[in-house]
Write a structure and sequence with these properties.
With about 110 residues, the protein is mostly helical. The protein is about 50% helix and about 0% strand.
Amino acid sequence: MARRLDLLDLLDPPCSPRQSLEETTKMAARRQSKVTLKYKTKYRVRNWAAYEESLRRRGDITIWFDDDAVGSWNALPSGRPGGQQEYSDLAILTSLTLRSLFHLGLRQTEGFPG
């Protein structure tokens, strides 16, 4: 609690020197009892599944697409041999646009189309 000092307080202190010494001793003891950064107790994660889920939800964003975009999200089969595309060019372009818009890394953008 803050206390206002008047000119009379400076001339006639409200407490005796012994009380003042006790107060300074208490303040010094309070200062000495603080835990150093080296020994400070750190937050420990005990429920990793909930922690991982909260990290996933932390950057949650809702984007609305029209029905035409949702219908053309998956790629059509190319008819050629080999691995087929999973997502259409529209989905890839949308993901990369959101990546540049929100300054995301490629790894953060990978989970978006799914």
